[in-house]
Specification:
Layout lengths: L1 H18 L8 H13 L3 H8 L2 H12 L5 H21 L3 H23 L16
Helix pairs in contact: 1-2, 2-3, 5-6
Length: 133
């Protein structure tokens, strides 16, 4: 019974993760990580299907495990974050909220490139941390 419940929950999280590739407010990566957990505990066959799925490899394997993301994709992410944070910035006339939104965006702007630069990303064309600037 537990295996069936985990398999069903894995299918649901897989569907949400797949939809999240096209809907900006639905996060793909956390749903795929949840899918990996559920399918690992339900069926080796389902788990292997996910591990070999090209979308899992793109959104989880490369970004989370290998910490690889091209500069172009980082710019796309930052543009999406900017647009999403601009909406409440414009609609809410409250100084502390606006300061918080600006701080969150600046955090993304500074920390996102640093996160993906940690391993050096040999294939991305970016400088390595151990190389002189």
């Amino acid at each position: 019974m537990k295996r069936i419940v985990f398999a069903v929950l894995g299918c649901i999280t897989f569907a949400f993760g797949s939809i999240g590739m096209f809907v900006p407010v639905l996060p793909t990566t956390p749903f795929y990580i949840a899918t990996a957990f559920f399918w690992l505990n339900s069926s080796e066959k389902l788990h292997q299907y996910l591990m070999h799925n090209r979308f899992y490899r793109k959104f989880v394997q490369e970004m989370i495990v290998e910490k690889k993301m091209s500069t172009r994709n980082q710019i796309k992410v930052l543009c999406g974050v900017f647009i999403l944070l601009s909406i409440p910035f414009i609609l809410i006339d409250n100084l502390p909220v606006r300061i918080t939104l600006v701080a969150v965006f600046l955090g993304h702007l500074i920390l996102l490139p640093r996160y993906f630069r940690k391993k050096g990303n040999e294939g991305s064309g970016e400088e390595r941390d151990d190389e002189p600037a």
